[in-house]
Amino acid sequence: xxxxxxxxxxxxxxxxxxxxxxxxxxSDNGNIPLGYPVPIPVDSLTPVDGFRSYQSLDLRxxxxxxQTSLIERILIGETFNGRSIWAxxxxxxxxxxxxxxxxxxxxxxxxxxxxxxxxPEAVTGYMEALFSGQANQHIEQYLLxxxxxxxIPVLNIDGFLQTQRFFNKVTDLASYPREGRMRRKNMHAVDxxxxxxxxxxxxxxxxxxxxxxxxxxxxxxSPDNSSLIYHGSSAASESETKALQQAAVxxxxxxxxxxxxxxxxxxxxxxxxxxxxxxDNITFELANIxxxxxxxxxxxxxxxxxxGIGSTDEYFANTYQIPSYTLEIEPLNSATExxxxxxxxxxxxxxxxxxxxxxxxxxxxxxxxxxAMSEPPVITGITILHLNEVIWQQEWQSADNxxxxxxxxxxxxxxxxxxxxxxxxxxxxRQVADSDVVAFSNLSQVQGINLYWQYxxxxxxxxxxxxxxxxxxxLEGFRYYKTDSYLIDFQLPSDFDWQSITRLNLKVETTDxxxxxxxxxxxxxxxxxxxxxxxxxxxxxxxxDSGGVDQSMRLIxxxxxxxxxxxxxxxxxxxxxxTSSIMIFILCVIPLLSRKGLxx
Amino acid sequence: MNTHKLALPIIMLASMLLxxxxxxxxxxxxxxxxxxxxxEHFALSSxxxxxxxxKLALTDIEKHETRLLATERVFRLLTAQPPSFAxxxxxxxxxxxxxxxxxxxxxxxxxxxxxxxxxKQAKAVLEIWQYKxxxxxxxxxxxxxRWQWHDFIAEQGKGKYAxxxxxxxxxxxxxxxxxxxxxxxxxxFTQADNQLLVMLASLHASKxxxxxxxxxxxxxYSYQLLQGIEQLFAKEExxxxxxxxxxxxxxxxxxxxxxxxxFIDDDSVQxxxxxxxxxxxxxxxxxxxxxxxxxxxxxxxxxxxxxxxxAILYVKRCMKEAL
Lengths: 600, 323
Ligand SMILES: [Zn+2]
Prior knowledge:
Chain A is an alpha+beta fold and 600 residues long. In chain A, 23% of the residues lie in helices and 26% in strands. Chain A has two domains: 2-372 and 588-598, Aminopeptidase (3-Layer(aba) Sandwich), CATH 3.40.630; 379-515 and 517-575, no CATH class. In chain A, the strands form six sheets. Chain A has an eight-stranded mixed β-sheet with strand order 3-4-6-5-9-12-10-11. In chain A, helix 7 crosses helix 9. Residues 1-16 and 574-600 of chain A have low confidence and may be disordered. Among the domains of chain B are: 23-125, no CATH class; 228-323. Chain B has 19 helices and three strands. Chain B has a three-stranded mixed β-sheet. In chain B, a hairpin with a 2-residue loop joins strand 2 and strand 3. In chain B, helix 2 (29-39) crosses helix 4 (64-78) and helix 10 (194-203) packs antiparallel against helix 11 (207-215). The radius of gyration of chain B is 29 Å and the shape is flat. Classes of the chains: A alpha+beta (600), B mainly alpha (323). Chains A and B meet through helix 2 of A and helix 2, helix 4, strand 2, strand 3 and helix 6 of B. Residues 113, 116, 263 of chain A line the site of zinc ion.
């Protein structure tokens, strides 16, 4: 009896051979009107209002790589049908940051799911932004010089080509289309003809083909090769999955600190927790930074540690203990957000008219995340000028993972005398738009810096604020990058007396562009290790992932300890510990579920 | 206190609250596919004219998800016919429907993907009816050659394009030509946007309309038009149009790729490409296009080029690899 039912189902599957055509408004039989023009893949090298064909995207990537030594095209494997899968390494030729120390690396994957056309356009957009900003002396140039970024614009090339070949055709159900424009999986044992129904549902979901949770969740992945979420015959059975893993080798596995798999749609950063509290908190904070880039219109969706569905973000989170995301690009629910009719699955068909904006928004967010993970901000030096003449210059000079404070030039400072102070940092510290310093969402303000002189005079501790005046983040005369230096006028009070001072230092309270506080101990160079920041000290000199106030710049040094209260090292995480991360998880999930109607 | 005595009122209370929670329903993929299949078994097309019969037939469907899918199917069928008053008022009442069907989002199973939304579908049907109604008046106007482009261009909203496009799908060639000429000769011609120009030109190739698109700032319509240009014009004219389009900086790379992939056998195209290879703004586009073509006829011509722009060096290198 059971067999009979199965046979009947099978038979009815075979018998139905309905292909639907997406149209703008024509609702004749067999048509699915979207309410906006159906995107046709366009052969263009430069970005269009719409989607480019795979062939022209591939040529575009080669075109950018051919024009600069900062972009390198690297073969990482091939698809089931033998097409070359390319990764692009975006970085200068040394592996050293401008301020010393080794560069970190990051990996962003695109086009793992064929029908999610937003993804290859977004990842190509990141490449185009870095290419065109390579000498802009700001974020883009900074990233190229201080990070090794590896991009895979299209992983599932076979599937992507299938969706482009049938850009307006789907089968088999109008409300649950699977093949043609709506293919998701790779083309393993699938022919390119959408009329042959037998193999239409085959192929492997490359985002279920990964360790460590491969085939562990009956709801999240399937052993059935006709399932939309078929996990394949074994973990990493697919050549595309192997290529993705090879890209991590290209990026430098021991330097890797960021991964994103780029999908659409539902406008959210999904991310797996791993149970490593510090990594999990950093992952939350970093998602916040990327969300801030677009006024938090993207949601946040963490999933609990200890289980999974076999997705690539789980693989990278657990293999490397790094922040690892599944970015689902817009729309939130459906194309009704752009005036479409809201037919089933139309969220996969972003209207042409939205693509340029989508590309720009995802680029801003991705670059903000990469900027945050490149390195924490740290003070690199100060210069004091009197009547435009440098009278004091002091710098942290770093070698490998430690730095030394070197005084290049020194001259006593006098009370009631006009000076200018320039404080420099290791990275651009503010957002710039149209040649103006601007706020970056709610994470950094146009000024956003407090400076004080602290001194010990006749055994009395004193503190004088400098930033009662207003200075400026420099767009000219900076050190390496626009806004890496802050310039301000100051005078010392009448009772300031250099001779009777035994200790004089600058106190600096600020954040970088995305709100990360300073590494309070520049002597030990911060780096990413084992799932957290290493040597990114807070104001007390303790281990942290969020930094603090810098008081390290001593003009007169009494050799007292930089961090007077010696406490046993304890972790200060960026939010506040384990219970809070659970709360954050719950708080984020509740609106998500209720939005989706589960609580209705 | 006997808890059993309380149980019944609680169940009753719960069942009163239940309908509200039933509207948005999540079902598994296989349940969904089953529901879709059973929805197709109900003979509803014969009842389309009679709204009360239609409603009754739908209410009779026991399973909620099957009913929703059947309703959606009825909606789709209804777009094909002109609505009665009863039809529109029924559809209007459905605008307030809470009926939504979700399946697990394949990307993240704990998240939901909306597959049926009755209110949204009702709105779409009403919109399509409006467009069709408007299309009918346009068809009538065209039949008596009454048409003012100025009025059309001045009209706000996106509905006018949809209606015009529906009307023109059924228009004969004479009316189409007349409409095109009216526009080309009207004072409003330069104010016509790409959406209008491309719609008119796609139905019947017009050099003047297409050339105007290349003059305008590029938008989604220009790219889509250019993508199919060789289907619109015969070879000689298509090449002419592509040459024009190559002067629009946003369209240049697309025009160059098209010239290379479709028309590179033509001598004039080869010479045009060589000229564009010597221009700073287009050199890299030509380099990539010609490299990927590996066209034998271009190899000698490229090798003879003197000026050593980096794009020319690149294309020389890649053509040499082909030898
Ligand atoms: Zn996806």
